[in-house]
Design brief:
Helices cover 21% and strands 24% of the residues. It is an alpha+beta fold and 311 residues long. The strands form 4 sheets. The chain has a 5-stranded mixed sheet. The radius of gyration is 23 Å and the shape is globular.
Length: 311
Amino acid sequence: MHRRTLIAALAVLPAVPALAQAETRRVRGTVEKVDGPKFFVKTRDGENLVLVAPMGVPFIAVVPATLADLKPGTYVGSGALPQPDGSLEAIEVHIFPESMRGTGEGHRPWDGAQQATMTNANIDTAVSAVDGSTLTLKLLCDQPIFAPDFGIYSHRINGMWLAGGASNSGGKVLSHFFSADEIARLSAAIDPDVPTGLDFYPLLEPGERFPVLDPAWPPRLAPRPADDSGFLQAMLEGISAIEKLGYDRLAELGAPPLHSMRSLGGGAANPAWTAIRQNSLGVPFLPAHSQEAAAGAARLALIGLEAVGDL
């Protein structure tokens, strides 16, 4: 049979019968043999293990892919190593199927190599993406910015760096309370130049990752205005305030000040929300060259490939 890396939740039994006491652990290795529910695996450290698959356990196979498989909107996991200049250099990229979108989202240590990190995210280089899930900020900088205490990380892009982070706030909070049609109808009743005066921090549950990193950070969604359009406006103002705080935080840490804005996602098509964000950020809003979330990353990747030749 072909050897293939598998990911599954399996019980682990050492191959030596005298030590056959079940335990749960993470295993990386090669499947040498399959006998019914038992998988005989040799780990990368040379250890022989027997993995027992419970009935109905899901299996995910890791198969070869190429740069051509990276399409706009692709959800990926990138294992990377820190470089002397502070940037991250990818050592492998996993392309997730659509059914696994959102798996392990974020930036964290990874056991694939010493000092390695793993970043699971949607490919996107918009300065801001306000979509159906979260608020994501990215800023092109001439130096890397790493601030784990604020959930900020950087990736090298053709001699420059994309610095930013992703808040737990965003479109998913809005869609919890209103449908897309309701948001469109209520937005038409909003006057962006007349603020509600409320200080909302729209979250569905405690915990924030950027521009503050605090697992206990509380949602603020009260007092709720009597009319739904006022409630929606207060949430839009709150998300816009988070966006401004994010760019202010990046500037405090050495990023260039924000001079203009290009936006992607469903929120970018909402005139009332766009006006609220313009009032908050105080910079010109320019049209995006594409509304595909990963179009900018794809263009930069192509430029990089042209610069270094065929990989």
